[in-house]
Amino acid sequence: MLRRLSAAEAAVGGLLLALIFVLTLLQAAQRYLPGGGWVWTGELAQFGLVWLTFAMAGHLAARDGHVTLKVVDTVAGPRVLRLVGIFANLTVAVVCLNLAYEAYALVTDGSQQTSPALDMPLGWLYVIPLAGLLLTTVRSVVAVFLPEPETDDGPAVHAPAVHGAAPDAGPAEHEEP
């Protein structure tokens, strides 16, 4: 189920990235065309960037793909790393759950505000962030119990480097003596 979720998140992320790309190109092309431009292209591209950020948050959390400081990784043992990972994932889950609650309040607000160019109800803007925050919460809770980041082939296996082998060396260099 997590693999299907990852595939769906990656597909949504790819579609949103393509949307941003097309809208940005369209906006640039409008500068050279006679007549007025379509203001909504810039607004939708900005919304797309916000949606992309939240839609991919869970996917990146599951693959340990977020920008992180790896200072603890170089000085701590495996047990300390595991405790730090549990603490970090629980913190992310709590924060995302609180943000999801606020996003839900914005979605169900019933406000009549709309975006300036698209005339889109602003409650709609927060639907994808709400889903992304809930998925990131789920991924963080799963990571507490299943700490290995996912790959396309399943959980990643981290083999320690032996005999000064480079970290990106193939499996043959990582064999135990």
Automatic annotation (TrEMBL):
Transmembrane domains' residue ranges: 44-62, 83-104, 124-146
Keywords: Cell inner membrane, Cell membrane, Membrane, Transmembrane, Transmembrane helix, Transport
Sequence segments annotated as region (Disordered): 156-177
A GO-annotated cellular component: plasma membrane
Topology term for the membrane: Multi-pass membrane protein
InterPro entries: DctQ (IPR055348), TRAP_DctQ (IPR007387)
Subcellular location, principal: membrane
Record's signal peptide: none
One of the GO biological process terms: C4-dicarboxylate transport
UniProt subcellular location: Cell inner membrane
Domain of life: Bacteria
One Pfam family cited in the UniProt record for this chain: DctQ
Domain Tripartite ATP-independent periplasmic transporters DctQ component positions: 20-144
Biased composition (Low complexity): 156-170
GO terms of molecular function: transmembrane transporter activity
Family membership noted in the UniProt record: Belongs to the TRAP transporter small permease family.
Protein name in UniProt: TRAP transporter small permease
Organism: Streptomyces armeniacus
